[in-house]
Amino acid sequence: MRKIRKIRRIRPRMIIAFLIFNVVFDVVLAPFIIFWGPFEASKTLAVGSVLSSRHPQVVEAFLSEQEISEIVNKYNNTDSASNGPIRRTVSEASAGITLEDIKGKAFKGKVMLIKDPKRIKVAVTKELEVTGERVSDFVKDTGAIAGINGGGFYDPNGAGNGAFPDGLTVHNGEIVHNNVGNKSTDIVAFDKEGNLIVGQITADDVKKKNIQEAVSFLPTLIQDGKRGEFQDSRWGVAPRTAIGQKADGTIILVVIDGRQATWSWGAKMSDLYNLFKEYDAVNAANLDGGSSTELYYNGKVINKLWNWAGERYLPTAIVVMPE
Q1: Where are the transmembrane segments (predicted)?
Q2: What is the mean pLDDT of the segment spanning 186-202?
């Protein structure tokens, strides 16, 4: 008599366990494929993106200093128009502000032009060293009409709530936070005349240069008409926020969306540099980007945030005051 083969029933628990195993396996295997695999473009992008994040040690765990240096130097494209021509479309113009949509080969974003540079202020969280605020909160609290995320920040307590601005932070001519002493730090600042100051300064320079508003971040993209020192591979491709100024004083605020494959990959530093050249900037600097990148205007966020949780909590923002 022929035995009837018993069909094993697949339980939902087995399917879930199988899926979890595959996810964990892929996550564990992915860094080895990226950093040790044959795909040079992916490796370069990953090296630059991770080195500019809060966890550069991830790259250092897979690659030697010499290998990292070779990748950085080999794929440095800071002089090339690496993302092709930039398309500009005016979407709004009123009250001394012009808003434009921009599109490169691999990125999309917004540019806001402000005719009067004295309308630009730094907003600082009300609970400094306790918790940060969203850009929308900064705009509402100050009575501004627009705002972008500001300088960098650090997280000594592991809370991740944007309470501690990094470097020098200046508001209304006074240093409100300083964790670098009198050491040189990269600055994005405005003096009494509304001139944008980029590059390195010390705390003592704040009074000497009549600096009224300032946050810290890097790199400098253009200083006095000359290209700053930066390397694409050190920064990778990411969402970006940046600021510049024309010779006539006009302020240029830039936000570029990123890490959204069907919308916008993001920009390299050379893309930002070329964009500011397109807008005739004489000074320009990169600001904090990634999941912080945001432009808030007329009561809403007008770019596409990468952060799935929405607006990030930050220690500083750069806001545009009414005329």
Answers
A1: 12-36
A2: 97
